[in-house]
Each structure stands twice: as structure tokens, then as C-alpha cells.
Amino acid sequence: MTEDFSITIVGLGLIGGSIAKAIRENLKVKNLWAVDINKEALEEAKDSGIIDGFFQDDSIPLKGSDIVILCTYPNAALEFMRRNMEHFRKNAIITDTSGIKGKIVEEARKILRHDLEFIGGHPMSGKESTGYRISDGTIFRGSNYIITPHESNSKETVLLLKNMMLKIGFRKVIELEPKTHDRIIAYTSQLPHILACTVMNSESFHAGRDCIGGSFKDMTRVADINGELWSELLIENKENILAELSSVMSDLEDIYHMIEREDADSLKSAFRKSGNLRKEMKYEKS
Predict the structure, then answer these.
(1) Cα separation, 119 vs 105, whole angstroms
(2) pLDDT per residue rounded down to tens, the chain (286 residues)
(3) Radius of gyration of the chain (CA)
(4) Which end of the chain is more exposed for a tag (fewer CB within 10 A), N or C?
(5) How far apart are CA 68 and CA 7, in angstroms?
């Protein structure tokens, strides 16, 4: 499938580095190149055999790349496309991995030449903290990958990208409209990160830090967050995340009043519902 393809990964941090390692472990490619401003990460990836070559000049690998994977912050991905629009190889496939899709897909279609295909992507997997040093080619195993193809994308290109993501370890590839993606992700990804950060930032943490158990650790795992990236994601998805925050604040207010009224029956009902829904997920066994 990709034996004759040259692939360039732009941004060799946690996600870019993990994709590079997963490609090296699971696919045969003609060339696997990387672009990053962090020369140390590039040299480490080259010395360990993960990539075949690296560049700090964007234009050099793009001229020979069949697939370009943008693993940067959303607005940086758009700026990269603007800056290098004339350097992309004819008929190249360009995709990204950012956590918002509406703006990315819309702007990419305005920026790119007509002979280029852009398909938005989002891996539903990661780690706390950032950087190539903690990248891991196995982190995608069992996770889902979301793509947001446009009607102008060829079926062959969509299928190629799907198969590629499945081969590097993703369990399932899900197709969504960009706006649907952003609405869903506001709840399934962005809201949990906000709640985790809120709990960690509470004044109560300092008084209770010696009495922390597993539930607190589980809930706050994702509070070790890349503030620069997540600030951008939340602001770019402002409308959806504000709607989810409004909804969860209303739900918390309901719980508050149940406790205030000592309404044990309503509390039990709410907990039974949440417990049953959680059991139905069964994702620990997947």
C-alpha cells in the first residue's frame, strides 16, 4: 500500500513521534522524513532509525512527499500550509492530527491548491505531558481514529488513509463531519480535561493531598496538560465547550440540591444510572 510512498511528519512531539514510530514498526515506506524546529528530537529519531532523514527547511521534503502528516497545534498547521502551499508535491495527501476540525478543514480548503487532497484527522489517544522523548508507537493500539473527509476527497484517498491508520494500530477509523466532530469532542475530550484541571486547582487540594486515593488519581490524570495547546483548542471550539460547561454546571447544581434536601432516592437513582452506563462501555476489556 505505502511501499512506494514517501511520508513527511511535521512536528515530532508526542503525537508526531508516536506516529513515526508506529509507521516504522508496522509499515513499509519508501522514505519517512520529519520536520521540526527541535533539532535534538530530529537527531534522536534519526539516530535510532525511526526516520530516514530530517529537515528544518520545510520545503525540501515536501517536494518529494506523497503524504504529509501535520502533528502541530491547529493554527500552526494552517500557517504551515499557507507558507508551503507551493512546495507540496502534486497530488500529495495532507492530513493533520489536531483536536479541532471545523476551522482546520474549512481553512485548508481555502489555502491549498486544487491538486492537493486534505483530510482532517484526530487520534483518540495520547499521554500526559509532551515531547518526542515520551512518544510511543504502541499508544494507538485499541484506540479510535477520527477522520473528517470532504465530498471532494476521492474514495481511494480516504480508503488509503483509513487502511494506514488501521495498520499502525488503531482499532477503528470513524468518519465524521467536521462540525459534528467538534461538538462531540467538546464533551468526550475537552470537558474531562477542564474538570480534571478544576479539581486540581481547588484550594481543597492542599489540605487533602495526603488523603488522596485511586478515584482522585483517576479523575485528575489528564490535568497534566499542555496549557498552550489546550488553551488554543478550547478557544477555537468555544461555542461547543461553553454549551457543555453550561450543561454540566446545571447537572452539578441538581446534585447539589439533592444533597441539600437529603434526597437519598434521587441520588441513588442518579448513581444507578451513571453506574449502569459506565458498565455498558466495557472499554477496559476491549
Answers:
(1) 7
(2) 678 899 999 999 999 999 999 999 999 999 999 999 999 999 999 999 999 999 878 889 999 999 999 999 999 999 999 999 999 999 999 999 999 999 999 999 999 999 999 999 999 988 777 899 999 999 999 899 999 999 999 999 999 999 999 999 999 999 999 999 999 999 999 999 999 999 999 999 999 999 999 999 999 999 998 999 999 999 999 999 999 999 999 999 999 999 999 999 999 999 999 999 999 987 655 5
(3) 21
(4) C
(5) 6
- For the entire predicted model, the pTM comes to 0.93
Q: What are phi and psi of 55, to 5 degrees?
A: -145, 145
The partner residues of 68 in beta bridges, in order of sequence, read 8, 94
- Cα gap 281→43, rounded to integer Å: 42
Sequence-distant (6+) residues with CB within 8 A of 146 are: 101, 121, 122, 123, 124, 173, 174, 175, 176, 181
Cβ-based neighbours of 79, under 8 Å, separated by 6 or more: none
In whole angstroms, what is the distance from residue 99 CA to residue 124 CA?
9
Q: How many residues does the chain have?
A: 286
Contact between 144 and 173 (Cβ < 8 Å): yes
Q: Which of 9, 15, 55, 47 is nearest to 29 (CA)?
A: 9
Host H or E run for residue 184: helix 178-185
